[in-house]
Design a protein that fits this description.
By secondary structure, the chain is an alpha+beta fold. Helix content is 40%, strand content 18%. Strand 10 and strand 11 form a beta hairpin. Helix 10 crosses helix 11. It is extended, with a radius of gyration of 35 Å.
Protein backbone atom coordinates (compact mmCIF):
# COMPACT_ATOMS: atom_id res chain seq x y z
CA UNK A 1 0.00 0.00 0.00
CA UNK A 2 1.02 3.63 -0.65
CA UNK A 3 2.29 5.57 2.31
CA UNK A 4 0.42 8.82 3.12
CA UNK A 5 2.11 12.12 2.41
CA UNK A 6 3.42 14.23 5.27
CA UNK A 7 0.57 16.80 5.21
CA UNK A 8 -2.23 14.20 5.52
CA UNK A 9 -3.22 12.98 9.00
CA UNK A 10 -4.08 9.33 9.54
CA UNK A 11 -7.58 8.58 10.86
CA UNK A 12 -7.98 5.86 13.44
CA UNK A 13 -10.32 2.99 12.55
CA UNK A 14 -13.97 3.67 13.59
CA UNK A 15 -13.59 7.47 13.53
CA UNK A 16 -14.77 9.93 10.88
CA UNK A 17 -12.36 12.39 9.40
CA UNK A 18 -13.19 16.04 10.32
CA UNK A 19 -14.79 18.00 7.51
CA UNK A 20 -13.03 20.96 6.04
CA UNK A 21 -14.91 24.26 6.73
CA UNK A 22 -17.06 25.43 3.84
CA UNK A 23 -15.40 27.96 1.63
CA UNK A 24 -11.88 27.01 2.72
CA UNK A 25 -9.34 26.39 0.01
CA UNK A 26 -6.37 24.01 0.01
CA UNK A 27 -3.08 25.81 -0.05
CA UNK A 28 0.43 24.72 -0.48
CA UNK A 29 2.40 24.07 2.68
CA UNK A 30 -0.89 23.92 4.71
CA UNK A 31 -1.38 27.72 4.83
CA UNK A 32 -4.82 29.12 3.86
CA UNK A 33 -4.80 32.14 1.56
CA UNK A 34 -5.77 35.53 3.00
CA UNK A 35 -9.27 36.78 2.09
CA UNK A 36 -9.10 39.96 0.05
CA UNK A 37 -11.45 42.76 1.18
CA UNK A 38 -13.89 43.96 -1.42
CA UNK A 39 -13.40 47.48 -2.65
CA UNK A 40 -17.14 48.16 -2.21
CA UNK A 41 -16.87 48.07 1.59
CA UNK A 42 -14.14 50.70 1.52
CA UNK A 43 -16.14 52.78 -0.94
CA UNK A 44 -19.20 52.68 1.34
CA UNK A 45 -17.21 53.89 4.34
CA UNK A 46 -15.70 56.71 2.27
CA UNK A 47 -19.15 57.84 1.12
CA UNK A 48 -20.41 57.85 4.71
CA UNK A 49 -17.58 60.24 5.56
CA UNK A 50 -19.13 62.82 3.22
CA UNK A 51 -22.47 62.64 5.05
CA UNK A 52 -20.74 62.93 8.42
CA UNK A 53 -19.44 66.34 7.37
CA UNK A 54 -22.82 67.61 6.15
CA UNK A 55 -26.39 66.34 6.50
CA UNK A 56 -27.27 67.19 2.88
CA UNK A 57 -24.68 66.70 0.15
CA UNK A 58 -24.58 67.20 -3.63
CA UNK A 59 -23.29 64.95 -6.39
CA UNK A 60 -20.31 67.28 -6.80
CA UNK A 61 -19.37 66.93 -3.11
CA UNK A 62 -19.32 63.13 -3.43
CA UNK A 63 -17.25 63.40 -6.62
CA UNK A 64 -14.64 65.58 -4.91
CA UNK A 65 -14.41 63.30 -1.87
CA UNK A 66 -14.10 60.07 -3.86
CA UNK A 67 -12.01 61.51 -6.67
CA UNK A 68 -14.24 59.88 -9.29
CA UNK A 69 -16.06 61.25 -12.32
CA UNK A 70 -19.79 61.96 -12.42
CA UNK A 71 -20.70 58.81 -14.32
CA UNK A 72 -19.13 56.56 -11.68
CA UNK A 73 -20.64 58.54 -8.80
CA UNK A 74 -24.14 58.42 -10.32
CA UNK A 75 -23.91 54.63 -10.49
CA UNK A 76 -22.93 54.50 -6.82
CA UNK A 77 -25.74 56.90 -5.83
CA UNK A 78 -28.34 54.86 -7.72
CA UNK A 79 -27.18 51.70 -5.98
CA UNK A 80 -27.35 53.36 -2.55
CA UNK A 81 -30.84 54.70 -3.30
CA UNK A 82 -32.01 51.27 -4.48
CA UNK A 83 -30.76 49.78 -1.19
CA UNK A 84 -32.53 52.53 0.84
CA UNK A 85 -29.22 53.92 2.10
CA UNK A 86 -29.89 57.51 1.04
CA UNK A 87 -32.90 59.74 0.44
CA UNK A 88 -33.23 62.32 -2.33
CA UNK A 89 -34.37 65.90 -1.71
CA UNK A 90 -35.07 68.70 -4.18
CA UNK A 91 -33.73 72.17 -3.30
CA UNK A 92 -34.91 74.60 -5.99
CA UNK A 93 -33.87 72.27 -8.78
CA UNK A 94 -30.71 70.99 -7.07
CA UNK A 95 -30.76 67.33 -6.01
CA UNK A 96 -29.48 66.77 -2.48
CA UNK A 97 -28.80 63.46 -0.77
CA UNK A 98 -29.27 62.53 2.89
CA UNK A 99 -27.94 59.43 4.61
CA UNK A 100 -30.75 57.39 6.18
CA UNK A 101 -30.28 56.18 9.77
CA UNK A 102 -31.24 52.59 10.53
CA UNK A 103 -34.70 53.41 11.94
CA UNK A 104 -35.68 55.50 8.89
CA UNK A 105 -34.30 52.85 6.57
CA UNK A 106 -36.38 50.20 8.31
CA UNK A 107 -39.54 52.36 8.12
CA UNK A 108 -38.92 53.03 4.42
CA UNK A 109 -38.58 49.33 3.66
CA UNK A 110 -41.75 48.54 5.59
CA UNK A 111 -43.58 51.23 3.61
CA UNK A 112 -42.35 49.79 0.32
CA UNK A 113 -43.54 46.34 1.33
CA UNK A 114 -46.91 47.77 2.30
CA UNK A 115 -47.38 49.47 -1.08
CA UNK A 116 -46.07 46.55 -3.11
CA UNK A 117 -48.35 45.67 -5.99
CA UNK A 118 -49.97 49.09 -6.30
CA UNK A 119 -49.97 50.97 -9.59
CA UNK A 120 -48.21 54.32 -9.96
CA UNK A 121 -51.57 56.12 -9.85
CA UNK A 122 -52.66 54.26 -6.70
CA UNK A 123 -49.37 55.16 -5.00
CA UNK A 124 -49.95 58.80 -5.95
CA UNK A 125 -53.43 58.71 -4.37
CA UNK A 126 -52.01 57.08 -1.23
CA UNK A 127 -49.30 59.76 -0.93
CA UNK A 128 -51.88 62.58 -1.03
CA UNK A 129 -53.99 60.88 1.64
CA UNK A 130 -50.82 60.41 3.70
CA UNK A 131 -50.04 64.13 3.41
CA UNK A 132 -53.52 65.05 4.66
CA UNK A 133 -52.76 63.40 8.02
CA UNK A 134 -55.48 63.42 10.68
CA UNK A 135 -57.50 66.09 8.85
CA UNK A 136 -58.19 63.71 5.97
CA UNK A 137 -59.04 64.57 2.38
CA UNK A 138 -62.20 64.23 0.30
CA UNK A 139 -62.56 62.34 -2.98
CA UNK A 140 -62.94 65.56 -4.95
CA UNK A 141 -59.78 67.00 -3.40
CA UNK A 142 -57.87 63.80 -4.23
CA UNK A 143 -58.86 64.16 -7.89
CA UNK A 144 -57.76 67.81 -7.90
CA UNK A 145 -54.31 67.40 -6.31
CA UNK A 146 -53.44 64.22 -8.23
CA UNK A 147 -54.83 65.60 -11.53
CA UNK A 148 -56.36 62.17 -12.16
CA UNK A 149 -59.60 62.68 -14.08
CA UNK A 150 -60.91 59.11 -13.92
CA UNK A 151 -60.55 55.99 -11.83
CA UNK A 152 -60.04 57.66 -8.43
CA UNK A 153 -63.09 56.05 -6.72
CA UNK A 154 -61.92 52.57 -7.77
CA UNK A 155 -58.39 53.33 -6.56
CA UNK A 156 -59.75 54.45 -3.18
CA UNK A 157 -61.82 51.28 -2.97
CA UNK A 158 -58.77 49.10 -3.67
CA UNK A 159 -56.65 50.96 -1.10
CA UNK A 160 -59.44 50.45 1.42
CA UNK A 161 -59.62 46.71 0.68
CA UNK A 162 -55.86 46.54 1.26
CA UNK A 163 -56.47 48.09 4.73
CA UNK A 164 -54.26 51.03 3.84
CA UNK A 165 -56.91 53.76 4.20
CA UNK A 166 -60.34 54.31 5.77
CA UNK A 167 -63.14 56.83 5.48
CA UNK A 168 -64.75 58.84 8.28
CA UNK A 169 -67.65 61.27 8.47
CA UNK A 170 -67.14 64.92 9.38
CA UNK A 171 -69.14 67.15 11.71
CA UNK A 172 -69.34 69.77 8.94
CA UNK A 173 -71.27 67.57 6.53
CA UNK A 174 -72.83 64.29 7.68
CA UNK A 175 -72.92 62.79 4.20
CA UNK A 176 -69.36 63.74 3.24
CA UNK A 177 -66.63 61.10 3.41
CA UNK A 178 -63.01 62.00 3.96
CA UNK A 179 -60.10 59.60 3.61
CA UNK A 180 -57.10 59.08 5.89
CA UNK A 181 -54.55 56.38 6.67
CA UNK A 182 -55.93 53.32 8.43
CA UNK A 183 -53.76 53.73 11.53
CA UNK A 184 -54.66 57.39 12.17
CA UNK A 185 -57.40 58.80 14.40
CA UNK A 186 -59.31 61.83 13.04
CA UNK A 187 -58.64 65.19 14.66
CA UNK A 188 -61.24 67.13 16.65
CA UNK A 189 -61.74 69.45 13.70
CA UNK A 190 -63.00 66.47 11.73
CA UNK A 191 -65.10 64.48 14.19
CA UNK A 192 -65.54 66.90 17.08
CA UNK A 193 -63.93 64.76 19.74
CA UNK A 194 -65.45 61.96 21.83
CA UNK A 195 -68.89 63.60 21.93
CA UNK A 196 -69.54 62.75 18.30
CA UNK A 197 -70.30 59.43 16.60
CA UNK A 198 -70.28 59.35 12.79
CA UNK A 199 -70.45 63.14 12.78
CA UNK A 200 -73.51 63.27 15.08
CA UNK A 201 -73.33 64.99 18.48
CA UNK A 202 -74.30 62.62 21.33
CA UNK A 203 -75.83 64.72 24.10
CA UNK A 204 -76.47 61.63 26.24
CA UNK A 205 -72.71 61.01 26.54
CA UNK A 206 -72.11 64.53 27.83
CA UNK A 207 -75.04 64.28 30.28
CA UNK A 208 -73.77 60.94 31.67
CA UNK A 209 -70.30 62.36 32.32
CA UNK A 210 -71.81 65.46 33.94
CA UNK A 211 -73.61 63.21 36.43
CA UNK A 212 -70.35 61.44 37.32
CA UNK A 213 -68.63 64.81 37.89
CA UNK A 214 -71.42 66.12 40.14
CA UNK A 215 -71.48 62.94 42.26
CA UNK A 216 -67.71 62.99 42.71
CA UNK A 217 -67.83 66.61 43.85
CA UNK A 218 -70.41 65.68 46.51
CA UNK A 219 -67.78 63.34 47.98
CA UNK A 220 -64.64 65.43 47.56
CA UNK A 221 -66.10 68.99 47.79
CA UNK A 222 -63.30 70.34 45.54
CA UNK A 223 -61.24 68.74 42.77
CA UNK A 224 -58.71 69.54 40.09
CA UNK A 225 -59.26 68.69 36.45
CA UNK A 226 -56.59 65.98 36.73
CA UNK A 227 -58.39 64.31 39.65
CA UNK A 228 -61.71 64.44 37.83
CA UNK A 229 -60.16 62.91 34.70
CA UNK A 230 -58.99 59.88 36.70
CA UNK A 231 -62.41 59.52 38.33
CA UNK A 232 -64.35 59.73 35.05
CA UNK A 233 -62.14 57.18 33.31
CA UNK A 234 -62.49 54.76 36.23
CA UNK A 235 -66.27 55.07 36.16
CA UNK A 236 -66.45 53.36 32.72
CA UNK A 237 -69.33 55.65 31.79
CA UNK A 238 -67.52 56.34 28.52
CA UNK A 239 -66.41 53.60 26.15
CA UNK A 240 -62.79 54.67 25.88
CA UNK A 241 -60.31 56.93 27.60
CA UNK A 242 -60.93 60.65 27.98
CA UNK A 243 -58.08 63.15 28.07
CA UNK A 244 -57.72 66.00 30.52
CA UNK A 245 -58.91 68.41 27.81
CA UNK A 246 -62.06 66.30 27.26
CA UNK A 247 -63.00 66.38 30.95
CA UNK A 248 -62.17 70.08 31.17
CA UNK A 249 -64.73 70.64 28.41
CA UNK A 250 -67.40 69.02 30.66
CA UNK A 251 -66.34 70.98 33.75
CA UNK A 252 -66.49 74.27 31.86
CA UNK A 253 -69.92 73.33 30.56
CA UNK A 254 -71.04 72.77 34.18
CA UNK A 255 -69.64 76.21 35.07
CA UNK A 256 -71.72 77.74 32.26
CA UNK A 257 -74.72 75.80 33.61
CA UNK A 258 -73.98 77.57 36.92
CA UNK A 259 -73.70 74.25 38.76
CA UNK A 260 -69.97 74.57 39.43
CA UNK A 261 -67.49 77.36 39.91
CA UNK A 262 -63.77 77.44 39.31
CA UNK A 263 -61.16 79.16 41.43
CA UNK A 264 -57.40 79.23 42.07
CA UNK A 265 -56.20 77.67 45.28
CA UNK A 266 -52.78 78.07 46.88
CA UNK A 267 -51.18 74.62 47.15
CA UNK A 268 -47.97 73.68 48.96
CA UNK A 269 -45.93 70.70 47.83
CA UNK A 270 -42.43 69.33 48.29
CA UNK A 271 -40.44 69.09 45.08
CA UNK A 272 -37.26 67.05 44.63
CA UNK A 273 -34.32 69.15 43.46
CA UNK A 274 -30.62 68.47 42.98
CA UNK A 275 -29.86 70.22 46.23
CA UNK A 276 -32.61 68.27 48.05
CA UNK A 277 -36.37 68.47 48.61
CA UNK A 278 -37.76 72.01 48.62
CA UNK A 279 -41.15 73.44 49.42
CA UNK A 280 -42.97 74.79 46.37
CA UNK A 281 -46.02 77.05 46.56
CA UNK A 282 -48.20 77.61 43.51
CA UNK A 283 -51.79 78.28 42.47
CA UNK A 284 -53.77 75.31 41.15
CA UNK A 285 -57.18 75.65 39.50
CA UNK A 286 -59.97 73.80 41.34
CA UNK A 287 -63.70 73.19 40.84
CA UNK A 288 -66.47 73.04 43.47
CA UNK A 289 -70.24 73.33 43.75
CA UNK A 290 -71.48 76.82 43.03
CA UNK A 291 -72.29 78.95 46.06
CA UNK A 292 -74.93 81.70 46.09
CA UNK A 293 -77.73 82.62 43.71
CA UNK A 294 -77.75 81.85 40.01
CA UNK A 295 -76.70 84.72 37.78
CA UNK A 296 -78.42 85.70 34.57
CA UNK A 297 -76.08 85.46 31.60
CA UNK A 298 -76.44 87.23 28.26
CA UNK A 299 -75.42 83.90 26.70
CA UNK A 300 -78.85 82.55 27.66
CA UNK A 301 -80.44 84.79 25.01
CA UNK A 302 -77.98 84.19 22.19
CA UNK A 303 -80.05 83.46 19.05
CA UNK A 304 -77.62 80.82 17.77
CA UNK A 305 -78.75 78.33 20.47
CA UNK A 306 -82.30 78.20 19.08
CA UNK A 307 -81.59 78.94 15.41
CA UNK A 308 -83.02 76.16 13.18
CA UNK A 309 -80.28 76.64 10.54
CA UNK A 310 -77.31 77.07 12.90
CA UNK A 311 -75.60 73.98 11.45
CA UNK A 312 -75.49 75.70 8.04
CA UNK A 313 -74.20 79.02 9.38
CA UNK A 314 -70.59 79.81 8.47
CA UNK A 315 -68.61 82.70 6.92
CA UNK A 316 -69.17 82.71 3.16
CA UNK A 317 -72.37 80.65 3.29
CA UNK A 318 -75.84 81.89 2.45
CA UNK A 319 -76.51 81.76 6.20
CA UNK A 320 -73.65 83.57 7.96
CA UNK A 321 -73.13 85.54 11.20
CA UNK A 322 -72.12 88.73 9.35
CA UNK A 323 -75.51 89.22 7.69
CA UNK A 324 -77.65 87.72 10.47
CA UNK A 325 -80.02 90.41 11.80
CA UNK A 326 -80.82 88.39 14.94
CA UNK A 327 -77.15 88.11 15.85
CA UNK A 328 -76.67 91.85 15.21
CA UNK A 329 -79.60 92.69 17.54
CA UNK A 330 -78.14 90.46 20.27
CA UNK A 331 -74.72 92.14 19.96
CA UNK A 332 -76.37 95.55 20.47
CA UNK A 333 -78.05 94.48 23.73
Amino acid sequence: PRRPTADVKLVEPGKVAPKRPRGSVKASHGVAPKRVKKEGGTLLSRIKEVFEESRFVTTEAIMRHLGKDKKEVVLVINKLAANDRIALHDDNGTTLYRWLPDDERKALRERKAKLKGLTTEEKLVYQEIEKAGTLGIGTREVKYVTKLKTGVPKMLERLQKRNLIKWVRTIEAKNKKIWMLRELEPSRDVQGGPWYEDGIFKQEIVDAIKIVCMKYLEEEKEVTCEDMTVKVNRSNVFNGTLSKEDVEYILKALVLDQKLEGYHKLVKSKVKREEGRKLEIKYVFHYRHRKGELLESPLNDIPCTVCPVADKCAPGNAVNPTECKYFAQWMDM
